[in-house]
UniProtKB/TrEMBL annotation:
Residue ranges annotated for the Zinc finger PHD-type domain, each copy included: 114-175, 238-307, 368-436, 486-553
One example GO MF annotation: zinc ion binding
Pfam entry (one): C1_2
Domain of life per record: Eukaryota
Transmembrane regions listed in the UniProt entry: none
InterPro entries, alphabetized: C1-like_sf, DC1, Vacuole_Formation_Reg, Znf_PHD
Annotated keywords: Metal-binding, Repeat, Zinc, Zinc-finger
Protein name: Zinc finger, PHD-type
Organism annotation: Artemisia annua
Length: 672
């Protein structure tokens, strides 16, 4: 936009005064691919090419707002304040002679002379000089107003003026202390923006420190605030570079990509001096030949499989010629199933049949190993020959050692393998002393400590792992911490007494045992039968809508881990995607803690049927409660999501914990 014309003595053509910010102080952030171009000011800004002033040789920027340019085709431009400087000047500091406007690079000037007003010896720009007296004054210093030092910055509603002398102060833009020239508001006072921050690029491609690889595919947009309410709406995201929050910097500037919910502090986004610590591995592969790399590819993998699958070919436990074996922990013979039946309606009716369907959540088929309580997703595996018995074992779970010596965290005693926890009532449900999850699979129990039990997964938990959420660094088992912290994956609390995996290099990186071991990289879910859903730890790039869970239809925090289908752009909570079929319902609306939420019953195999003659006339099934089951017959509280005993003939239900406490001295008349 131009406003009138003027004539400059040393240029033959008239000059037009251009206003680069006609809508100032209004400002709107714009992305390159926005459909609405936002009006003429944005076009002017995008088309404006920075150029040197033909009088002072300093750059003309968009922030100066006004400048003169030639009305004709020649490329002649001036700062507004430079264009309005007089050619000659009578100044009170040198009344004897008239001062002439010349360039500081003029050969008649003595390079050793200083401006008598500011004391600087500049080599670029204009000055008024007296050649006879070797007297000079910078052109900018002769102007009584501050117009020559003004910029019109979109971050503030008033023009900002540059300080005449360098100073040491905290910059309100980046929050860091700087020394040098600052731009201040003469109306508000208290606003200081360092010159380096004042002229930051509006768009920035953020790069790694060592190899110039762009660490985000889109340009980051400079934003002049990050209000607390906006942070709350985005679940208080953290800087993607330094991993710290923005809680104390609501009014400082940031770089952001709203499409990907990518936010970075100003110093973090533009700093390339420090090496990203994740670019350097903190271990050698040769030192850890059997290192476990997590997460597991899918739900069929487990620590017992990782530890013992290679031993199956050489194991002592094997089938005879008829494919039948006898296991010490089960009263019936086991048969080796080598062929899977894909038709789930064709359930074997004969003990001689060796065809059965594997675990398949997509088809609502559940088949869980009695030892590790993980899905049996492929053949071969062992199954009880009795059709009414659901005892199943992975091949590698037949290789579990009968005792474990010097277990980390409890090395003073020996652990013995049992089919169920000694002295435990009903279904042998016990709480693992490592992961704190309920379990009714095989158990390693301390021979000395009456109540110390560990499930078979935790018993062989490795000392060191890696995880793609913190790739390149070794995570080591940690038995206690000095203070409360949060899990890198789920962002929920990790208490000082909880077992966890921690990075020795990055002291702030800690991961729940459950988050590391029990959330597979990919899952299949009935809500998306065409594609697998992948575990994500950060907001998805180019996600065009708000995040919500497709199952519970509630808001989803993308800063916490969740499962996402990249083809359908669907997302679900980890706790709404149980990867073991135990219940038709999720646990999303239950107030669960971070340790148990996504996998509360991952170590429990439901389905046992029991008869208590003194307590109830009908058999009771061991199941997970759902909403329609109503309240507990003992305590009156809802049984939804809890393990319960349920009568299939009447509406009688009771919490498992109520049953265990109330009937602890009873004997089970019959286990069906």
């Amino acid at each position: 936009m131009w406003a009138g014309a003027t004539h400059i003595l040393e240029h033959e053509h008239p000059l037009n005064l251009i206003d680069l910010q006609p809508n100032y102080p209004l400002y709107e952030e714009k992305y390159d691919d926005d459909d609405d171009n936002g009006g003429g000011e944005l076009i002017t800004r995008q088309n404006f090419r920075r150029r040197p002033c033909d009088r002072c040789s300093k750059e003309i920027t968009w922030f100066h707002r006004y400048y003169y340019e030639c009305a004709y085709s020649c490329d002649y431009s001036l700062h507004k304040f430079c264009g309005e400087l007089p050619i000659t000047l009578k100044h009170t500091s040198h009344p004897a002679h008239t001062l002439n406007l010349i360039h500081l690079s003029h050969p008649l000037l003595d390079p050793r002379c200083f401006c008598v007003l500011c004391g600087r010896n500049d080599t670029v720009g204009l000055c008024y000089c007296c050649i006879v007296c070797r007297f000079q004054i910078h052109g900018n210093c002769t102007i009584a107003s501050v117009e020559d030092r003004l910029i019109y910055h979109p971050s503030h509603r008033h023009p900002l003026a540059a300080t005449l002398k360098p100073q040491l102060s905290e910059c309100n833009a980046c929050g860091k202390e700087h020394e040098g020239t600052f731009y201040i508001c003469t109306t508000c006072f208290g606003l200081f923006i360092h010159s380096d921050c004042a002229f930051l690029p509006e768009n920035l491609m953020i790069q790694n420190a060592t190899n110039d690889i762009f660490s985000h595919p889109h340009p980051l947009i400079l934003s002049y605030s990050f209000p607390i309410q906006d942070q709350k709406d985005q679940y208080f995201p953290k800087c993607r570079v330094c991993k710290s929050g923005f809680y104390d910097s609501a009014n400082t500037w940031i770089y952001k990509c709203e499409k990907c919910r990518y936010y970075a502090h100003i110093p973090c986004a533009k700093s390339r001096g420090a090496i990203n610590r994740l670019l350097i591995k903190n271990y050698k592969d040769s030192d850890y030949p059997d290192l476990l790399h997590l997460p597991f590819p899918d739900e069929s993998y487990s620590i017992p499989k990782h530890m013992f699958a290679k031993l199956v070919e050489h194991g002592k436990f094997g089938a005879d010629e008829g494919n039948y074996v006898k296991h010490n922990f089960h009263p019936h013979p086991l048969i080796l199933v080598r062929t899977e039946c894909n038709d789930i309606t064709s359930i074997p009716t004969s003990s001689k049949t060796t065809v059965i369907s594997c675990h398949n959540p997509m088809k609502k088929v559940q088949l869980l190993c009695n030892a590790c309580v993980r899905p049996v997703t492929s053949v071969p595996f062992y199954k009880c020959v009795n059709d009414d018995c659901n005892f199943v074992l992975h091949e590698w779970c037949t290789q579990l050692p009968t005792q474990v010596e010097k277990y980390p965290g409890h090395p003073e005693h020996t652990f013995i393998l049992h089919p169920n926890a000694p002295n435990k009532f009903l279904s042998s449900v016990f709480r693992c002393d490592v992961c704190q999850l309920e379990c009714n699979g095989f158990v390693y129990s301390c021979v000395e400590c009456y109540h110390y039990h560990i499930d078979v997964t935790c018993c062989f938990m490795p000392q060191n792992i890696t995880h793609e959420a913190h790739s390149g660094h070794l995570l080591s088992r940690s038995f206690k911490r000095e203070h409360l912290t949060s899990c890198l994956i789920c962002k929920d609390s990790i208490y000082p007494f909880q077992r966890s995996f921690a990075c020795d290099t990055c002291k702030d990186v800690v991961v729940h045992v459950g988050c590391a071991l029990l959330l597979p990289r990919e899952i299949r879910h009935k809500y998306d039968k065409k594609h697998p859903m992948r575990l994500s730890y950060l907001p998805i790039e180019n996600h065009k809508s708000e995040y919500f869970c497709e199952i519970c239809e509630k808001a989803l925090n993308p800063e916490k881990c969740f499962y996402h289908c990249y083809e359908c752009a669907w997302s679900i909570h980890t706790f709404c995607a149980p990867h073991i079929l135990q219940s038709e319902s999720s646990v999303s609306d239950r107030d669960v803690d971070g340790l148990k939420g996504p996998y509360m019953f991952v170590n429990i195999k439901f389905g046992g049927i029991y008869k208590f003659e003194r307590r109830h006339p009908h058999p009771l099934s061991f199941v997970q409660g759902i909403e329609s089951d109503g309240p507990c017959s003992n305590c009156g509280y809802a049984v939804k999501y809890h393990p319960i005993l349920k009568c299939q003939k009447c509406k009688y239900v009771i919490h498992f914990v109520c049953c265990r406490w109330k009937w602890r001295n009873d004997e089970i008349v019959e286990e069906i």
